[in-house]
Amino acid sequence: EAAHFPDLEVRAVYFDKQNRRWASTQGGQLTVHQNGTNKLIRFNNKPLSEYSIVAYAIMEDSRGNIWIGTKNDGLYKAMPTDLERNSYQLQHYPTVANEKKGFRIYSILEDRLHNIWIASYDAGLIRVNEDQGVCRFYRVTVSLPKYPANTFEQVRHLSMDRNGMVWAATTGGLLTLQSADRHGSGRYKVRIYRKQ
Predict the structure, then answer these.
(1) Residues 6+ apart with CB under 8 A from 154
(2) In Å, what is the CA distance from 122 to each residue of 12, 33, 106, 171?
(3) What is the pTM of this model?
(4) Which tens digit of pLDDT belongs to each residue from 79-123?
(5) CB 55 within 8 Å of CB 48
(6) Rounded distance, CA 34 to CA 56, Å?
(7) Cα pseudo-dihedral 57, 60, 62, 64, rounded to 10
């Protein structure tokens, strides 16, 4: 297996629904392996080996899209263009917030309502709204009285429990998000766990 990683500093690893292992190294090598064999994956009709993407987060959504979060280069969304999912149309979002924030993506999650959530280390928690392949990004603002406004803007990790609650690990404490209704209105109840 070591031969698969010329640069052994692996930043992200993910197994997709086909049990293919996606891995990214600090040097920007993104690889896909299945049963010990390198898979020929194409982004925008070019071999994956021609791209330099230092992924910190990799996630496949329910539609087969591969989402890739990077530390300094924003977000990538790879949409399959063939049934075997060996060829993808790649979209790049250098930032998910504004020109000065939202390019450090540490975790990506899809909730039970098929919402995509982005954990940004410099712009906080982001919800993605997709409409006919176009992504719009909405920051979830969390504030407390007498507490600095940017306290929860450094999100390191996202997870979902068996009840569908989204958990966000931030440098300001732990957040949970629960959908306010079952119809996907986009309203969420936010609970904050922090040191008193």
Answers:
(1) 121, 122, 124, 170, 171, 172
(2) 19, 32, 10, 11
(3) 0.89
(4) 999 999 999 999 999 988 877 888 999 999 999 989 999 999 988
(5) no
(6) 20
(7) 150
